[in-house]
Amino acid sequence: MADKASVEKYLENNPQFAKEYFDKKVRAEALAAAFSAPLDIKDTASFKEINCVLEAGLIMELVQELQKPGNMEQCLHKVLQRVGLIIQADRLSYFQCRGRNGTPELTTCLFDVTPTSKFEANLVDPQTEIVFPLEMGIVGHTAQSKKPQNVPDVSASKKFSDFVDKQTGYKTKCMLAYPMVVDKECIGVVMALNKIGADAFTAEDDQLFQKYMNFAQVITLQHHTAYMFNCGVQAQSGAALVGQ
Description:
By secondary structure, the protein is of the alpha+beta class.
């Protein structure tokens, strides 16, 4: 039986084999772990075939999540957990855009989400939220430009700000960011940080991230629509009371 040193040496001398093994087995197993119900797959020869089967299960789960009466944060938390596991992000967060005293800003809503973290631990208390100007950092740039970002090395980006890192003690190395846009207005930004086992997120990771952000977009749109409707009802009620 080969020992650890000989296996490592073989993999170093045969990088193509290592890549193919990772694509066919390891990535497939990571995707399988993203689902609550295990799938019995006999042949692991094709990552793409397994990916199709697992994605169907994930899409069904997220569609069911959209139909639940739970609040926006709980539904979004589930999406971030699943996406984080699939793209192997160390953690994800959701920042809300808001205007306070006429000043646009970003604030933490769901913070440091991982595949195993609890919703209650990730939901940010208003008393402990991190707030910063809309024009600050890559998250702010994403909100202003309304375009997704894939930053392989934040230290090389002029847009990057270590403001949040200084608040938390975390070290951001690479990042994916996606804006939640409603009627040409950015209402929030999802951020995925630090690819596990690699220096940066790949183009494939970015594609998967953006694909599943469509579910996050629907969730935030539903919440925003309900919020605006309630504001309209309250305004009409207030006007009716004044007119009496």
